[in-house]
Amino acid sequence: MKKGNSVKLLALGVLSFAGLLAGCGTSTSGGGNTSSGNQTSASASSSIPKGITLHVLSYWQPEEMTVIKQLAAKWGKEHGDTVVVEQNSATGSNKFSNWAQMVRAGTGPDVAIAMPSDNLGTFYDEGLLAPATRMNPSDYPASVAEGVKIAGKYYAYPVAAQSVALLYNKKEISSPPTTWNAFVQDANKYGFNFAEHQFYYDYVFLGGMGGYIFKDNNGTLNPNNIGLANSGAVAGFQLLQDMNLKYHWMNSSVSQSVATAQFDNGKVGMFMSGPWDVAAAQKAGIQVGVAPIPTLPNGKPGTPLISNLTAIVSNKSKNIAAAQSLAQYLTNASAELQYFKADADLPALKSLQTNSEITNNSIAKGFVDQLNTAVATPNIAQMQAVYSAQAIITSILSGKLSAAAGAKQFVSNIKQAIAVQQG
């Protein structure tokens, strides 16, 4: 998967909402959960009329677009319908928000695919999402399914899931560390870095040490209960600060581009990032290995945030039953395996994470193994406030603020951002 694609945009957090082009779509919602892996046939259903036209907007790259068009054409042929697939052309702050604008105006697509799941809460609040009536949550790892669940219902079909993991230079490190003590020894000897000023990456340590973003009350996130200044989060911030001031692995000015360049140039032997940075390192001559992040000082695993890409159905579609069937078809096991072969998109379905196509690929297997401890990125609209308040992290890393004082200020800034967000 290429650096700069929609998965990387999700990894950088809720920087904008979601956007797509064109279309309309069938009536009423489509029926019930399906067999394992969402692998229902593309054969016609009595609830789906013939002769309609559905519109799909894709946020993926050309490699996936080829697959999507083939699958959409097959679904359309077997249902007697037409599917028009278009590539999203919006950029910057409109990259995702144009989808919402079009749906509000009644001109949006019936289905969007490769939509980052952290946009779902905003769309849900506006009533733009149809529940994913054909999505079977038991087909996915719990943390993947939770990423598309809002107020007790599922509103998207996961199609790809990934998180950051430990990238290491196999020329220097033959066996990756699995414990914190071993990790410290390797980091002291070979170097370690990542984009430490970004909350998305930092949550590996904040959550792993016992912090949380929003309290989860039986599947409903409470934005008024923020756990980023509790004792666990403070310990996590202290650990991040120690990486700079105690271990001297990096400093607070290390950006993602700097961290990437240092790993690609062989200046550091370990780097925390995602699949989007593997190809460039390999092109630079690095023998890249991927492994789960070692256990932390408390003996517990790190907690990377899962980046879900999803297919969603517009609640304004004129053909919701058909759109549900199409969205499910574009995200079933066969489809996800084709996306992986096309551009290394890691599948979201549990059934595929033990597929030989995945397990025989050491890079893919390393990232899939990391998903075992990864957690769902909150998909409620208030998550935007967390990212907008993250600038304070630099002051913690540099020692300008203590871990406790910085964490307290961070939470205060988040609450202020939420208040502004809510008007």
Automatic annotation (TrEMBL):
- How does the entry describe its membrane topology? Lipid-anchor
Annotated signal peptide: 1-22
InterPro entries per UniProt = Maltose/Cyclodextrin-bd, SBP
Report the main location listed first in the record.
Answer: membrane
Q: Name one GO biological process term.
A: maltose transport
**Keyword terms of this UniProt record:** Cell membrane, Lipoprotein, Membrane, Signal, Sugar transport, Transport
- Could you confirm whether the keyword Lipoprotein appears in this record? yes
Localisation per UniProt entry: Cell membrane
Gene Ontology MF terms: carbohydrate transmembrane transporter activity; maltose binding
Domain of life according to the entry = Bacteria
A cellular component term, taken from the record's GO annotations: ATP-binding cassette (ABC) transporter complex, substrate-binding subunit-containing
Pfam families linked: SBP_bac_8
Q: Give the UniProt family note.
A: Belongs to the bacterial solute-binding protein 1 family.
Name it. Answer: Maltodextrin-binding protein
Q: Which organism encodes this protein? A: Alicyclobacillus mengziensis
